[in-house]
């Protein structure tokens, strides 16, 4: 029997199970040795994790990860005791209560060795935040398979991270220390889970000899295969090209107006144009084919006047919502069909292509 901190093991099990696909049938493998209770969760993104244990018993187990987590969560004491019975089931005990989690057979009998990084570097949590944002911008269609992944490349000695669809893009640069990695085409599911999985400020990122993407934070490690896809070079061009500053605005005021506009239309389209007359300076927000009559205007600081330009309203809201800062800067990229590039004065940007719309009359 060994003793572990219940909150610590519950947190780790919750993160591991959240990374599983809903139809996953892989068991969770566990092993206790040398004062360490270790886990391995097989899936399309295998996860190694563990925590300190008290007790000298050495054992292995294989259980349903969700059932195991739910039982651990059901106890409310600070510590729980874990042991294995003659049927290989896990016995969880706290005070006078105990629950037995049955053995679950699987393709593996013991925890595999962790993949070794052949090349690696160290990043901070802003790298994880950028990956989390990038996965929200990957394409949901398959015309260009490369765009269905998050992208990690190199630019000016930093990681360049991007997620893009056919008419929108998120991109930013974040620093790293150590070796320079080749470009990585990363499954968005992997990008989504790493932000929840790691708790330390410094994370090691690298590639194995089998071209697996590997991230590690102490005992926690997750790997997945890099995709054999090509990512379009235009993601760099739209970040680097010179743009014409059109206006600056309060992010929250813009979002309030655009979310209100979204309630008035079924076409999910909006037309934006500058207004600098009648003592009003800002944006006219035009909703074509509205189902509710609406005249919307939002105050912004106009730098250059522009005529009415149409955009997908949900994607425009997504592109603005990506930032934490209160003030955003909106530029026009004339070299890219008049796309709007939105930023906050840092390396972080979003880009949205306009929609062609023939106004009636």
Could you write a compact summary of the structure shown?
Helix content is 20%, strand content 40%.
Task: Write structural notes for this entry.
The chain is built from 7 helices and 26 strands. With 361 residues, it is an alpha+beta fold. The chain has a 9-stranded antiparallel β-sheet with strand order 5-2-3-4-17-16-15-9-13. Strands 14-10-11-12-26-25-24-18-22 form a 9-stranded antiparallel β-sheet, with helices on both faces. Strands 1-6-7-8 form a 4-stranded antiparallel β-sheet.
Secondary structure: number of strands: 26
Pick out the low-confidence regions: none
Sequence of strands across the biggest β-sheet: 5-2-3-4-17-16-15-9-13
Looking at the structure, what is the overall shape? elongated
N-to-C CA distance = 80 Å
How many distinct helices? 7
| Class computed from helices, strands and strand pairing | alpha+beta
Helix content: 10-25%
**How big is the Rg?**
25 Å
Strand content: 35-45%
* Biggest sheet architecture: 9 strands, antiparallel
Ordered list of secondary-structure elements with their pairings:
Layout: E1 2-5, H1 6-18, E2 28-33, E3 36-41, E4 47-52, E5 59-63, H2 65-74, E6 79-84, E7 90-94, E8 97-101, E9 117-124, H3 125-135, E10 150-155, E11 158-164, E12 168-174, E13 177-178, E14 184-186, H4 188-197, E15 202-208, E16 212-217, E17 220-225, H5 234-240, E18 244-250, H6 251-262, E19 269-277, E20 280-286, E21 296-299, E22 301-302, E23 309-312, H7 313-321, E24 327-333, E25 339-343, E26 349-352
Antiparallel strand pairs: 1-6, 2-3, 2-5, 3-4, 4-17, 6-7, 7-8, 9-13, 9-15, 10-11, 10-14, 11-12, 12-26, 15-16, 16-17, 18-22, 18-24, 19-20, 19-23, 20-21, 24-25, 25-26
Helix pairs in contact: 1-2, 3-4, 6-7
